[in-house]
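Q: What structure does this chain adopt?
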Amino acid sequence: MLSKYRWWRDAVIYQVYVRSFLDSTGDGIGDLAGVRAGLPYLKKLGVDGIWLSPFYPSPQHDHGYDVADYCDVDPLFGDLAEFDLLVTAARRLGIKVLLDIVPNHCSSEHPWFREALAEGPGSPARARFHFADGRGPDGSEPPNNWHSMFGGPAWTRVTEADGRPGQWYLHMFAPEQPDWNWRNPEIGAEFDRILRFWLDRGIDGFRIDVAAGLYKHPELPDSDDPEADARTRDSVNPLAWNQPEVHDVWRRWRAICEEYAARDGRERLLVGEVSVPTAREHALYVRPDELHQAFFFDLLGAPWDPDAFRKVISEAMQDIAGTGSTVTWVLNNHDQVRTVTRYGEPAPAGSGLGAARARAAALLMLALPGAAYIYQGEELGLPEVVDLPDDVLTDPIFHRTGSRARIRDGCRVPLPWSGQASPFGFTSGAEGAKPWLPQPEYFAKYATDRALADTRSFWHLYRDGLQLRSALPQLGEGTLRWLDTPPGVLAFVRGDDLVCAVNFGTAPTPAPVSGTPLLASGPCPAGVLPGSTAAWWISDS
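A:
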């Protein structure tokens, strides 16, 4: 019988970007054994679970989001035996394990895509993907005008077995990532098998990449704004994303999770990367028979402004929580500029404004009703590494466009664990071992050992916030009530008496209520809420 407590509804999940977390082999790339070694650190931090970035066999054109085999471990990261040890160790510590599943596309080295290339036009193998004849008298123009999220056309032409230019295939990301054709029933059946493979190994659920994708318009017509996806770096082409049939997939996957939960009373979680225009459309993905959760990115994208924050929080609470799900809050992930840097712009470097705002935003997020996801390194206050040289950049966006705008390497630099110089304890290799991306010298002041020793650090703010969130019945799942506040201040009540307030300005302002202080993101004199500071307290009014 299922427990009445749905653990995922107010869980705090830590995103582990495996290749940048901790390297156990000395090759400069993080791995599953490194994640296992870091579990006590995450237990001490106080998170409820981890989400592992893709570790499947892959040529790594997009750091594992180009999957060649969905049911194995790339030797870069270990093997299935090491994965099983990781799951066992996590369970022993009470930490849930979520896997990143990539159902929109695979690798061009996946056996089914290789088979499609070999068998040619009209074959059943090609029907698993979106192959089409080109336009123009010689078929030399793409089948439609769609553009890839990573820049350039969303189509690549193949050379047929006889050496002649042939059909085109669709890839909404890199050419090495052909999109699956979910209108072919073989694809749904194959992913059923993949889900069961990992569920049978004891995992607690899946984070679903590009969850609003999968289905394309059946006629693949031209778009009115073909460059929108590449220009905005968001899935806004309505012909390629958010097709109504995608909801049938999530009903099917939810049924599989419910089947496993019915066996042992342990709920499995589906959380989707859902990029849709409105909170109301977002809510459709978390109806009771679909995904349990979907990341709510509007808070991440909101400008540092109390009215903007209040608007997106209110819409989420009304539309998403109204489905019976809970809102899934995020401030960052492996695709975004780190929070400290994002909130600091356009302030001068070193002003401290970005760090102050990031601390306040973290405390705000942890006080909101629902679940929260933390990207690795945010608990250290890591800034974006903005000066990586061109010759070390690996992001396919850079290599397809030649532009550094919105590239993602800067938030993926390996974590600093200890010491005064790179590799900062990240790799166990011999002296001179280099992480796969270079760490700047200033990472020394963000190293984990220093963070744990400094009670004023980001790490202690997160740890203290997570401890209070776990201990106080007012926090976690539930509702909130907005308070009237001075200009520039946002405040709400959880339960009957727990207040969270944020001063978005720079000047101190009187605290909106009096009471017993619990936690603040910065120095907070009695009765005063300084600018760019958040605080929790128990109201006595």
